Amino acid sequence: EKAVVSGIAFQKDQTKISFQGVKDSPGIASSILGPIAAEGIEVDVIIQNISNEGRTDFTFTISSIDRDVVEKICNTQLQDLDFNNLIIDNNVGKVSIVGVGMRSHAGIASRAFQALANNNINISMISTSEIKITLVINIDDVNNAVKVLHHEFELDK
Amino acid sequence: EKAVVSGIAFQKDQTKISFQGVKDSPGIASSILGPIAAEGIEVDVIIQNISNEGRTDFTFTISSIDRDVVEKICNTQLQDLDFNNLIIDNNVGKVSIVGVGMRSHAGIASRAFQALANNNINISMISTSEIKITLVINIDDVNNAVKVLHHEFELDK
Ligand SMILES: C[C@@H](O)[C@H](N)C(=O)O
Ligand SMILES: C[C@@H](O)[C@H](N)C(=O)O
After folding, report:
1. How far off is chain B from A1, nearest CA to CA, in Å?
2. Fewer CB in a 10 Å sphere around the end CB: N or C, chain B?
């Protein structure tokens, strides 16, 4: 599968919610997302990495419009959840490299990471699929990141 | 966008590589993936969550066939990388809920998480996109997870 980058998408109106240090046991992910889903909130990226000493971070992004509703759920229905720290951050932007065959080419992801590094843009979260590499970055870096990635993948021709 | 689950995909031949405690600064993601991409290794899921006290975990999955080559890269080209712990785990399976509109419906993800929880299947890693919810789980749980998710999304009719 030859990788072909077809475009760079971005969003600037995102809020990141992270429950840090949740227990890594069955039912935790559903207990966090359940009340949010019940409100019909659109959740974008969901990321959870492997646990360390039985705990892990469960992070997701929502549209900033939904921040107040979700914050209220966190402080009411989720107040009894066992976690170390809750982070709610509005300074979140997202850039995605869209194409086909993205997965089979670590080269595409590696080029994207390198191009951002050369421009001193830090990557806060990473999530990939066959058609997309999604990077959560600081909202102030979004414009520059889009330019850098357009250039790297020669989409500005 | 109405969410429609069209199928459940799974893979059992995956190996998980996790650099725990890497510095959260520009260039780190590229320095890890660069040497692996240079060998033409196909990398599947890449996951990185937000950092905690300036460090985070960078995790990815590869096909188990490539384990030895990647392990050698970790022990040679990546030996000078600043990290706390390297995990290489073969007991890794992957199930994906495939469809359209997945992102806009936290309900789909929440139902999947709940169904797995009800069957005592623990979720080790989570990565989502519009067309797919990818869950990394223990290889021993893959068969049961596929059955449970087929039933939950009425794909077994
Ligand atoms: C942390 C959370 O994902 C947990 N492992 C679960 O299965 O729900
Ligand atoms: C950890 C790694 O992703 C780092 N933040 C980078 O931008 O490369």
Report:
1. 11
2. C
Give residue-wise pLDDT tens across range A4-42.
899 999 999 999 999 999 999 999 999 999 999 999 999
Task: Count the Cβ atoms, other than its own, within 10 Å of residue A140.
Answer: 12
Question: Distance between CA atoms of B103 and A36, rounded to whole angstroms?
Answer: 13
CA A64, CA B128: separation in Å to the nearest integer?
A: 19
CA max distance for chain A? 53
In chain B, the residue whose alpha carbon lies closest to the alpha carbon of A113 is B30
Q: Is A59 in the pocket of ligand 1 (CB under 6 A)?
A: no
B-chain residues near A106 (CB < 8 A): 33, 36-37, 41-43
By C-alpha distance, which of A86, A88, A76, A82 is closest to A25?
A: A82
Q: What are B63-108's pLDDT values in tens digits?
A: 999 999 999 999 999 999 999 999 999 999 999 999 987 766 688 9
The conformation of residue A2, written as its DSSP 8-state character, comes to -
Give the separation between CA A33 and CA A106, rounded to whole angstroms.
31
Supply the DSSP string of B80-129, one letter for each residue. TS--SEEEEEEEEEEEEEEEESTTT-HHHHHHHHHHHHHTTPPEEEEEEE
Contact by Cβ (8 Å): B108, B133: yes
For residue A151, the SS3 value is: helix
Residues of A in contact with B123 (CB under 8 A): 26, 29, 48
